[in-house]
């Protein structure tokens, strides 16, 4: 069995500061990376910034800066955001780094050596905002301006260009998707990609001559590489390409590339074709999640509703935000971000359901058991349903997360938390102290065992708060992975006095 796992986020354009959409993809990738580590895999989690191309060059010009100084500055915001979001990324790649330019040149040379690239002339539509070429039948026209399906305006481009023989890979791609049934997720995106390919693939322009901000084409420096060829290569640069003999190459192929639905075409069509053409293995999965709107509207600078994730973390706390992003909508579907919804989830599920459960249980252990963990308890008939639900929870979460169903995983966890609240209410351990002290110990121990399972599986979603809960539960640092759940904590373990994990947030008056 492969003991390594490799997950990536898109590398984000440095034309502007990060917003909550970027935070979303990054948090999803972080949760999966942490989950794999809890299972004992050796994980490589990559994120970074996409710094070349016409769009970034223009943003630098608008800011009155040279492109390198500009990208240094904006890239730092993304690096800082990784810290603010508590990302556990193992590397942060920038496409302006020497290691990356070397990988791009090596890939280009390999493609050229295999006659997968030829020199021609491009004439057609280009959207700088998307850094993408579009066919005439994909466009719509308003007030004399043509627009891509994304809403980006297109311009007519006419220049000499190197082409990648993409059309040659059309049939291979269709067979590849058939043989790798889950390569593109979710299904709706897979269907969309297959329909696009069936409509006919053209060879792809992979170099530009009308601007300079890119990686010069080896042997033809009047061209710079098309920014998507450059950008996609980042995923192998970070795995050590072109040194495929190096230790680090063990991470390739990537297990999951997380992307937004806007960029599925590049990842699901161009990327496997480039790799196959160069004799390299394609990634195992491209998961294209949905799109966030903000209080019902598209997020845009002109509407002034762009949400800064740093401000959200300051206002609501990191873990409630991480939880909300993956809890609110099925991964793959579009969602609406509203403060009210975030506050609602925080108050009802985190503060009330989970937080109160922990606080009630741990306070009772403090008061009624002198702060010592009761011994492992007998599972009586009346405990069985609840204990079984808790014991099967890690497997259920694992199955959900293997297919990146974050919301379903959290749903299963919350349903078990609700059962635990039902269990504490029905068995009322606070009323047993005088009449049935031994039974009180059993009930408290079952609740403690359940909290340990909840905290263990939730660590990947809310690392900070769950570390605090595991501290309060007396779980040693070396016993916090999934395998450790098989070993019960020794009875008599001293537990620190509990303190609240989550705070309730007031809903501001509308
Ligand atoms: O496309 N909702 O970079 P980018 C959800 N550099 N996710 C969103 C979002 C929203 N409203 N807005 C952005 C690029 N995202 C290229 C990628 S990869 C080799 C090169 C997320 O800065 C989502 O993941 O435009 C989307 O795909 C990504 O940010 C686009 O980031």
Verbal overview:
The chain is an alpha/beta fold. The protein has 2 domains: 4-290, HUPs (Rossmann fold); 339-509, Isoleucyl-tRNA Synthetase, Domain 1 (Orthogonal Bundle). It is 45% helix and 16% strand. Strands 3-2-1-14-15-9 form a 6-stranded parallel beta sheet, sandwiched between helices. It has a 4-stranded antiparallel beta sheet with strand order 5-4-8-10, covered by helices on one side. Strands 11-13-12 form a 3-stranded antiparallel beta sheet. The protein is elongated. The N and C termini lie far apart (54 Å). The mean pLDDT is 96. The site of ligand ME8 has 19 residues, from β1, α1, α7 and β14.
Helix content: 40-55%
The CATH topology of the largest domain, please?
A: Rossmann fold
Rg, please? 26 Å
Proportion in β-strands: 15-25%
The total of helices stands at 16
Spatial gap, N to C terminus: 54 Å
Question: In the CATH hierarchy, what is the superfamily of the largest domain?
Answer: HUPs
- The coarse overall form would be elongated
CATH class of the largest domain: Alpha Beta
The count of β-strands is 17
Structural class, by secondary structure, is alpha/beta
- Report the bound ligands by name, code or SMILES: ligand ME8
Reading side by side through the largest sheet, how are the strands ordered? 3-2-1-14-15-9
Unreliable residue stretches:
none
Largest sheet: 6 strands, parallel
Average residue pLDDT: 96
Q: Kindly give the count of domains.
A: 2
CATH architecture of the largest domain: 3-Layer(aba) Sandwich
